[in-house]
């Protein structure tokens, strides 16, 4: 609160910043949960146990652009492309997530992709955890500015939401075998808002 200057110190500006952060934390968690829910409903028998949430985030990153930066000086790439000083640049998430050089069958959802990788490495590595970021997985951003709430979000989705759902309900999509298509709003990717999932509480 001590950092803002001039009009940015007003109560309205400070409250707006807090509301934006609150929206980002709630909206990203809920949309990722719905993406995961669609896959659970689509492949109930295959994913009866809670599966690797990381694959959902790879296939359906909330933000299609991450790591926003403003250039401090101009830069010319080897092909002649010029990025002038003061230009905002970012990294396209899906380019890395759907790259065949990074992932075998990159366009296919494989729920246990990261679980299998971890087991192949003896199960001791943490680099395949949902909260681990890298150049080929940027759903939470990357580097020192990666999402600070990523661990909390993963716990909420895996334990409190997905596990509860799988243990207590049978579920299926309204149109079996067809996963609802995502919708893009600017650089944000969201699950289809009108898709229906049928739930039946187990007795």
TrEMBL record:
Belongs to the cytochrome P450 family. Keywords: Heme, Iron, Metal-binding, Monooxygenase, Oxidoreductase. Its cofactor is heme. This is Cytochrome P450. InterPro entries: Cyt_P450, Cyt_P450_CS, Cyt_P450_sf. Gene3D superfamilies: Cytochrome P450. It comes from Sphaerobolus stellatus (strain SS14). It holds the Pfam family p450. SUPFAM superfamilies: Cytochrome P450. CDD domains: CYP503A1-like (cd11041). GO terms for molecular function: heme binding; iron ion binding; monooxygenase activity; oxidoreductase activity, acting on paired donors, with incorporation or reduction of molecular oxygen.
């Amino acid at each position: 609160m001590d950092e803002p200057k001039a009009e940015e110190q007003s109560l309205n500006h400070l409250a707006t910043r807090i509301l934006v952060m609150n929206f980002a934390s709630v909206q990203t968690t809920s949309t990722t949960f719905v993406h995961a829910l669609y896959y659970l409903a689509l492949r109930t028998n295959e994913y009866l146990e809670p599966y690797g949430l990381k694959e959902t985030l790879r296939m359906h990153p909330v933000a299609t652009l991450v790591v926003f930066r403003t250039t401090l000086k101009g830069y010319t790439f080897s092909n002649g492309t010029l990025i002038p000083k003061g230009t905002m640049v970012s990294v396209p998430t899906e380019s890395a997530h759907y790259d065949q050089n990074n992932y075998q069958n990159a366009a296919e959802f494989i729920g246990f992709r990261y679980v299998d990788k971890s087991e192949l490495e003896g199960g001791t590595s943490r680099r395949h955890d949902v909260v681990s970021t890298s150049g080929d997985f940027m759903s939470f951003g990357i580097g020192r500015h990666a999402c600070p709430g990523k661990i909390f979000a993963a716990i909420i989705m895996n334990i409190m939401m997905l596990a509860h759902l799988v243990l207590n309900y049978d579920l299926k999509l309204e149109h079996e075998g067809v996963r609802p298509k995502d919708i893009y709003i600017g650089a944000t990717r969201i699950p289809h808002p009108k898709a229906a999932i049928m739930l039946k509480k187990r007795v």
